[in-house]
């Protein structure tokens, strides 16, 4: 096993990685910005190094400072968490060129999946279903208009280098396309340094379902079930659950097989997620009266996902521990041929944002009391006395609940939300209290527009 691990991240994910590292006897090293000096992940690490001021470009995205911290502390490996440098292929290459172990997929796999057009084409070649769309970037507005005419409206205009729900727009006709194309291209150039744009068919009523994969040290790729991620605001997830209430055993088998093919197509190692759109075929019903469905590849996240705990709790696998085992060249700590879901898990992302418009609301934390009890887990980044600053993502904690059934998990989630006390920053706990009594959500028959209908 790896002996020492530098965690190149912050907040709840750094704290969560450190927890598993220390359980395994791995020396955990934190890096932190000046703004985060008082956060729990800093004090819970075996060693911590300040890598710069609050600005992420000068701290958590500062490759030179992070590698200097690894060298000064004698770190053997680097875990990037999610966000920041986690899907930066050049960072992965630089880490390995420095003689360190990279706890993540290879740089080539990150590069291959980082460009949405390239990823779509690779997946299509591997037999993974992809939505109708362009196979090359739309070079200019005329090319985008021609592509949309062939694909059929409505269409999604997407930044090829985008991610995290950013750099996307929907066009219902050519006039809207002309506006969205310029908007997305400009945003992509500014945010990602790459203005390449792709055009895809847009499906107004879809579910967002993803599959957790793990590329093992021996070259095999295995799938650890699916997660439902359709409760979103601004194309960004708020709630995840596993198993998906929309996925039948037959559909699950197809989902998992496609995800494994996706991983094999790029020689995937370590943890990753294959994200898909699940589209009901409204006019085609199977024998039990449910609409039969098809799914399309959306993208692959070449890192550990925010929502990985629901998979851990349903499948009984510590994904961070498995990431470390793969990086060390060790066999998995579970039997890949005996994976089966047990019970149901739901994750709620507790953000520092108002519960109506979901606008950021940072501030000093004056009260922080977490719920506890059977089937309740909290992965948090803050305690009372800390300050949620405006420099980073608004995620404060993840509340994860489990139950023998979905109904039991929802009941425990209601109680846990009611007992979670946060004062100081604005928070979205009232939204979750509302969601957990929403008839559409309770039925399990919801899609990515559920929050829009609630608001």
UniProtKB/TrEMBL annotation:
Q: Which InterPro entries match?
A: ATP-grasp, BC-like_N, Biotin_carboxylase_complex, Biotin_carboxylation_dom, Biotin_COase_C, CPAse_ATP-bd, PreATP-grasp_dom_sf, Rudment_hybrid_motif
Question: What's its EC?
Answer: 6.3.4.14
Query: Could you confirm whether the keyword RNA-binding appears in this record?
Result: no
Keyword Ligase recorded: yes
- The record places domain Biotin carboxylation at 1-455
Which part of the chain is the ATP-grasp domain? 120-328
Q: Which residues cross the membrane?
A: none
Q: Which GO terms describe its molecular function?
A: ATP binding; biotin carboxylase activity; metal ion binding
State the top-level EC class: ligase
Going by the entry's taxonomy, the superkingdom of the source organism is recorded as Bacteria
Q: Which UniProt keywords apply?
A: ATP-binding, Biotin, Ligase, Nucleotide-binding
PANTHER family linked to this entry: CARBOXYLASE:PYRUVATE/ACETYL-COA/PROPIONYL-COA CARBOXYLASE, METHYLCROTONOYL-COA CARBOXYLASE SUBUNIT ALPHA, MITOCHONDRIAL-RELATED
Question: What is the protein named?
Answer: biotin carboxylase
- Which species does this protein come from? Micromonospora olivasterospora
């Amino acid at each position: 096993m790896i002996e020492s691990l530098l965690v190149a991240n912050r907040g709840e994910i750094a704290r969560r990685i450190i927890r598993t590292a220390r359980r395994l006897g791995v020396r955990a090293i934190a890096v932190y910005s000046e703004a985060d000096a008082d956060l729990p992940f800093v004090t819970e690490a075996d060693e911590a190094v300040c890598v710069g001021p609050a600005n992420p470009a000068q701290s958590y995205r500062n490759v030179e400072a992070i590698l200097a911290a690894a060298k000064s502390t004698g770190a053997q490996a680097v875990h990037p968490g999610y966000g920041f440098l986690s899907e930066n292929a050049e960072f992965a290459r630089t880490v390995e060129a420095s003689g360190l172990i990279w706890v993540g997929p290879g740089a080539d796999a990150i590069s291959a999946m980082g460009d949405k057009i390239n990823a779509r084409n690779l997946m299509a070649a591997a037999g993974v279903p992809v939505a109708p769309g362009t196979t090359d970037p739309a070079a200019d507005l005329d090319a985008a208009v021609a592509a949309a005419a062939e694909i059929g409206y409505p269409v999604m205009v997407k930044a090829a280098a985008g991610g995290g729900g950013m750099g996307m727009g929907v066009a219902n006709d050519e006039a809207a396309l002309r506006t969205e194309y310029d908007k997305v291209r400009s945003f992509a150039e500014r945010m990602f340094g790459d203005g390449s744009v792709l055009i895809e068919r847009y499906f107004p009523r879809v579910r967002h379902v993803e599959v957790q994969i793990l590329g093992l040290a021996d070259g095999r790729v295995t799938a650890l079930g699916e997660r439902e991620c359709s409760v979103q605001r601004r194309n960004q997830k708020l709630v995840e659950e596993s198993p998906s209430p929309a996925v039948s055993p037959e559909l699950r088998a197809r989902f998992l097989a496609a995800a494994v093919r996706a991983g094999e197509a790029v020689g995937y190692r370590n943890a990753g997620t294959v994200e898909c759109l699940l589209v009901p075929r409204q006019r085609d019903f199977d024998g039990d009266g449910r609409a039969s469905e098809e799914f399309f590849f959306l993208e692959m996240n070449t890192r550990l996902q925010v929502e990985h705990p629901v998979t851990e709790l349903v499948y009984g696998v510590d994904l961070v521990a498995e990431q470390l085992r793969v990086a060390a060249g060790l066999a998995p700590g579970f039997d890949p041929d005996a994976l089966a879901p047990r019970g149901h898990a739901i994750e709620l992302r507790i953000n520092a944002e108002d519960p109506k418009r979901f606008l950021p609301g940072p501030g000093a934390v004056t009260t922080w009391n977490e719920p506890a009890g059977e089937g309740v887990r909290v992965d948090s980044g803050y305690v009372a006395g800390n300050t949620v600053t405006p420099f980073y993502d608004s995620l404060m904690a993840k509340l994860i609940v489990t139950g023998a059934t979905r109904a039991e998990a929802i009941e425990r989630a209601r109680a846990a939300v009611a007992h979670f006390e946060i004062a100081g920053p604005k928070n979205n706990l009232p939204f979750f209290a509302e969601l957990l009594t929403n008839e559409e959500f309770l039925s399990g028959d919801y899609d990515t527009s559920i929050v829009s209908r609630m608001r």
